[in-house]
Amino acid sequence: MKKNEIYIKCGTDYKAMTKELLKECALEELICDRRQRVGIKPNLVSPTEASFGATTHPEVVAGILEYLKEKGFENLVMLEGSWVGDRTAEALEVCGYRELSDLYGVPFWDTQKDRAVSRDCAGMKLNLCESVEKIDFLINVPVLKGHCQTKITCALKNMKGLIPNSEKRRFHSLGLHKPIAHLNAAIRQDFIVVDNICGDLDFEDGGNPVVMNRILAGRDPVLVDAYVCHMMHYDVNEVPYVVLAQELGVGCADISKADIRVCGGDEGERIPKSRKVVELKDAVEEVESCSACYGYLIPALEMLKEEGLFDKLHTKICIGQGFRKKTGELGIGHCTKNFRCHLEGCPPTENQIYDFLREYILQQD
Ligand code: SF4
């Protein structure tokens, strides 16, 4: 498989279609030695089943494991760390990865339990989970999703599961885009299988799955993400970390150079344009907020909108690490503890945010 190729396959038997896709890509030829340790990195951002639209379908990872085992690869491991606010150990159970681990005899490394190692990532010092350095060939299995801060999340951003929680918070204080690009200059993804089965097009933590029944495979994470921008109706320049990653030499962001191979002649449906977040974002003043904090706020606002309460909120909601030590009126999370009216938590949950804002709005009335 060439570096500029992206393979696409559609279907509903996710395990079988993953194996067929890998066969078409001749994945085994890309791994030079059967003794190499192959790491498989899904997205288990939170403890929710894949049908919710946030996490990687275990059937896709099962297809990868079966393919590799049938080709004689035995040194396999799965690895991931959930986002700040959730425990990987819980996600492992809920998302069906404990079962996968037992069924295939493949260990699962919880990177939330890893020691941090400081590394120079193309001129930016970042802390990585030590497991990363024990992997010889990394297969990234992200979910194609929308993201309320970065617009899309796929191959490049999925590497955030391989940094410690403290570093995830710091990434947000560094503006997300730059550190994501630099992180990818340090962690090489050798192969990518994108789960575009039913990812949420608005929220990283799911809740509004959009069924597409499609998987994609590629070797260049920048090209894969640039192509995903195109699929999700964004210009690549609207997602700065993709362009920055290209500038750092991680890959190519020019999709005119991509060679798209449709397996079985069915490319699937075009992804619908979805911009729920854009409307809700106007009510929020966000400065360096963590994914979980912001990711819980937006669906809480959507619930208020469905109830007809959102339009009655006339005060800006402040959220993020940029509000630490600052004062104001209405704040979400521990970072806004000096605000007149604030919700404690780091991060507070979606329901807590909903209850808090609902009460605030009703008191105003
Ligand atoms: S309260 Fe602050 S540090 Fe905690 S999750 Fe929210 S933004 Fe991040």
Order of helices and strands: EHHEHEHHEEEEEEHHEEHHEHEHEEEH
Number of strands: 16
Radius of gyration: 20 Å
Distance separating the two termini? 62 Å
Q: Can you tell me about this structure?
A:
- This protein has 365 residues and is of the alpha/beta class.
- The chain folds into two domains: 5-263, LarA, N-terminal domain (Rossmann fold, 3-Layer(aba) Sandwich); 276-364, no CATH class.
- It has helices at residues 14-25, 27-30, 58-70, 88-94, 97-104, 165-173, 177-186, 221-231, 240-247, 276-281, 291-306, 350-364, and strands spanning 5-10, 38-42, 76-80, 108-110, 116-121, 124-129, 137-141, 145-147, 151-153, 191-196, 214-218, 259-262, 284-286, 317-319, 330-332, 341-343.
- An eight-stranded mixed β-sheet has the order 4-3-2-7-10-11-1-12, sandwiched between helices. Strands 13-14-15-16 form a four-stranded parallel β-sheet, with helices on one face.
- Helix 1 packs across helix 3 (58-70), helix 7 runs parallel beside helix 9 (240-247) and helix 11 packs across helix 12.
- The longest helix is centred in the C-terminal third of the chain and has 16 residues, at 291-306.
- The N and C termini lie far apart (62 Å).
- It binds iron/sulfur cluster.
- Residues 84, 169, 289-290, 292-293, 320-321, 333-335, 346-347 line the site of iron/sulfur cluster.
